[in-house]
Structure formats: structure tokens, C-alpha cells
What does this fold into?
Amino acid sequence: MRPPTEIKYGLPAAAEVAGMTGREILQAIIDGKLPQAPISQTMSFWITEVGDGFAAFEGQPGGHLLNPMGSVHGGWVLTLIDSAGGCAGHSLLPVGVGYTTIETKANFARPITEDSARVRAEARVVAQGRQIISAEAKVLSSDGKVLAHGTSTIMTLGNTK
Amino acid sequence: MRPPTEIKYGLPAAAEVAGMTGREILQAIIDGKLPQAPISQTMSFWITEVGDGFAAFEGQPGGHLLNPMGSVHGGWVLTLIDSAGGCAGHSLLPVGVGYTTIETKANFARPITEDSARVRAEARVVAQGRQIISAEAKVLSSDGKVLAHGTSTIMTLGNTK
Amino acid sequence: MRPPTEIKYGLPAAAEVAGMTGREILQAIIDGKLPQAPISQTMSFWITEVGDGFAAFEGQPGGHLLNPMGSVHGGWVLTLIDSAGGCAGHSLLPVGVGYTTIETKANFARPITEDSARVRAEARVVAQGRQIISAEAKVLSSDGKVLAHGTSTIMTLGNTK
Amino acid sequence: MRPPTEIKYGLPAAAEVAGMTGREILQAIIDGKLPQAPISQTMSFWITEVGDGFAAFEGQPGGHLLNPMGSVHGGWVLTLIDSAGGCAGHSLLPVGVGYTTIETKANFARPITEDSARVRAEARVVAQGRQIISAEAKVLSSDGKVLAHGTSTIMTLGNTK
It folds into this structure.
């Protein structure tokens, strides 16, 4: 696990990802050959693993994420689930096929505090149709407890037949 | 609409909100008597209106919110919906009653870009039971188009009879 | 409101709906020129109104719908929401365009009993994209209370450009 | 797997379930000592297995379940997911504790036809709080393909401390 201070953030140029599959793009981000997205810097989370129909992220809770009640905002967890679910689907897409997320839904099981240890979000594709892919995601505490879980649905764009 | 540069961010002390209803707490945040939450600074959104079973937020898209594909991350929209839905429910709670969000689910209808104008998220309570409150929220563009919509479910905590 | 005993149930022949828009098909079912679906007989509900991006159903609770705890099964309410949401979307589709439902999600607000009066489910399209349409639905008691509410997401099939 | 013709349907008397845990009640239904619910007869599905935080159902597609487009209505799948998710949670409840389902959400992955073989719905509890339990469910074809998947959230009632 690389410390987040070493991570580069930004957007890849179109030419940098041309000819790459979804999984190759995500692996290049993990390997530091492509930048993590700007939102990852803002919200202190980053992709750490990708497989076929699988993606994992880590996130670092902190004071910048607190809601008015003093715990980490549910929106942070929703962002992790939306990211992991979308990337799990993206990992299955061939060269030249993009996607858009149609909807995301999640349950909050346990509170996260400013001082909580790093969390892990992992998502797996459950069903893949011609255009629609759905993935289930879990956000886990450092000791493996389920903090939240949810589902994202994506639609592929372009080059579908 | 106050410019976001004038907004104070932070957490209220427990003594500051003692004896206040949910709606009074939220109105005090809007009036600048209590700070907006830290997440609001991080993700550039803030509460602007509260009523009985109603809450509205504004959010400012920007480069710090972009996903790897270069558009505003769905997690930002989910955070707005989760915030507006939770606060719509909170507005109905009497003194001494808190809440936790059980789940949030949302559909993404239109993309938001770095350069999009400020968006408005508004939520209304649809059903209120003894412990469970559900609210529907919409995120609207500056010209009133639905960018996303969703539902949050909260459970009240403490002082329920 | 026609009594359900007068309703015909079955499936239309393909030739019967050829050349009709979604709204025309649904209006023909309401008018009794086409049959209500078989599931409508099994679960005692039927479509009663259609507009542009709008559909309403009525449902008759009864002993055949009870769950093990003796109240009407949540699946009945989910079926009403799924039906109303799908038909609200269908009402916007031109001749020759079909649809499939991608996902449905709903909150249960109040219990329904065997002896509850007829309920009304109404759905309105909230967002319509090139292929994706989402609609919000409410199930209302005879005195207008919200019994449940939810959202369905459909994808259009065929003849899309 | 017992043929559905041998199944008794109805509601247990309160005295019949007094002193039984949730799991014991569900096992008694599976064993035929208590009846399957009336909705099970109407919609041709029945509970077949229960464990700690686990429940499985079987369902028999048929002509009585068809939507206007001639395939099995999504409401049937939603009912299976709602049932399996609720019973997975119920299996964890001690004597004298009931529950109500707060919300259910599901994705449809593959169509089911009138002639499809029996399907299996299985649900597992993912998170259990003091009052809230959430369970993920999958509906599987006879050859193990995911037909649909979803999540139910229940709230316990009575005797909670």
C-alpha cells in the first residue's frame, strides 16, 4: 500500500489511454503511470486493485469529511461505493468502450469517525448484460467489519454491437 | 445567495445546539450563526433553505470534483442528495432527537462538468413514521433541468417514545 | 372506476399493438380494447390512467396477498410501483420502441391489511435520457396517505437512434 | 425439494409461534408444521432453507405471472428478493422480536419467461445493527445464472433494548 503522499492526481490525456482496455487503464492508475482522479485528492481515496469484474479502493477518513454531527459524511461512503462499483464494471470493457453510471444505492451500517483507520471498498460485478452491468460493493473497516454496502448500475457507451 | 467565500466551516459545540429543534439548528447554519460542516468546504456545497420537511442546498462544480473521465464524480451528486434528504428529515425533529441515515439511493440523469453553473439540491419528506423518515431529493441545474434524483431514509435516535 | 370483475386478462397479439405508441397501447388496455396483463388478475391490480410520462394503477388488497405476519406482502407494493413506473416511461415511447426495466427500489411507509380499501399507485417520469428513463411512484391509501414510494429505471429497446 | 402441491398455505395462530425464535418459525414453515404464507400460493414461491442470517426460496414461473409484454413481471422477482431478504434477517431474531421491512431495491439482470425452470432466491445478512438489518439477495436460474439481485433493509420491533 503506497502512502497517499506519493500519489499524482489529474486527468489523463485522451492519447494516453487510446488503445487500452478498461482494466489496463485502471491498472495504469494503480501503477502510477496514469494519475488518480482529482476527486481522489479532494476526498482522500484511491484505487488500489483491479481484476476482471473487480476493483478495490482505499480511503482515509479525516476532519475534512465530517458532517454537521461530527462523523464522516455518508456521501464519502457513497462516493467510495460509486467509484468501486463503476470501476469493477469498467474493468470488463474492451478498448474504445466507455460507460456512464445510471444509479447507485447504498446502506450505511456503522459510523466512521475522523480518527477511523483507513477503510477498504471492494466491488464485484454481479451481472453483465449487453449494455448494463451491475456491481455490488462493500466498505470495510481495517478489522473487516462491514461499514456500508451498495450497488451501482452502469451502461456502456460506444462501440457496442 | 451568499458567496461561498463568506461561509464559516466547522462543527458546533454541543452547548451551542442544546435546546434547539432540528429546523432551528439548520436555520442557524444558513444564517451563519453556526458553521457549515467541514465536508461542505471540501466538496463546495452548503445548505441555503430549510422548512418543515424541506431542505435545499447549493453546490459549485469545479475541477476538484472530477472523476477519471473528466466529469463531476457521481459521488458529489450522491453527497448532495444524502445531505438534502437527511436535513429535510432533520427539520422535523424536536429538541434532543438526533438521527442517523440508513440508506440513500439515487439516479444520475445528466452529466455535470467542471464548468457547469451552480446546482440546487432540494429534498422533501415523503413519509414520516414513528422512527423512520424518508425524503425524495432532486438535483437541478441552473435552468431547472433534473440532473439527478434520489431518496434517503433516516432513523431517529433518542427521546423517541 | 370499473369493478375488477369486468376486466379481461391476457396478452395482446403482436398484430393488435402494431403501429401503436406506448401511450396508445396503455390507453387501449384501460379502455378494455386490449386485455390487462395476467399478473393483474393474480395480484388484483389494474391500470386506470395514462398521460405523457404518467400512469396510475389501482389495487385491491385481499387475503391472497398476505405475508406470514398477516399483512399485505411488500412484494405487492413493489409490483405496483414497478408497474406504474414502467408504464409512466412506456407512455413516452414512440411506435416500435419497447423497454426493459433495469431496476426498482421502494420504501414502505405504512402497513396495508387484508381489509384495507383500494390503493392507488401513480408514477411520473422524472428524467428522460436518450435510452434511460426514470420515474418516481407513490402508493396512496384511499384517504391520500403515502403507503410506499419508489423509483423505477427503464431502458428503451429497438428503434433508438 | 418438495413439490408445491404438498404445501399448506395460511397463517399461523399467535399461540403456534409463541416462544419460537425467528429461525424456528421459518424452519417450522419449511418442515410443513406451519403453513406457507397466502402470498406464496398466489405467486407460486415458497421458503426452502433457513440458517443464521440466511434464507432461500424457490419460485415457479408460470402464465399467471406475466406482464403485458409476455415475460414474468419484475414484481415477482422483487417479491422473491423482499421475501428472502426479510427472512434472512428474521432468522436472527430472538423470541418475541418482530420486524418490518423498511425498503427493498433490486436490479433485473435477465428476463424470466413463463416456461423458465424453477428459480432459487437466496439472501444473506450483510450487516446487523441494534435495530437495522440489511441483507443481499440473488435470484438464480436453474443453471446458476443471476437473474436479479437486490437488498432489503428491515427494522426490528419489540423487545429491543
Remarks:
- The CA atoms of residues 57 and 117 of chain B lie 14 Å apart.
- The two ends of chain B are 39 Å apart (CA to CA).
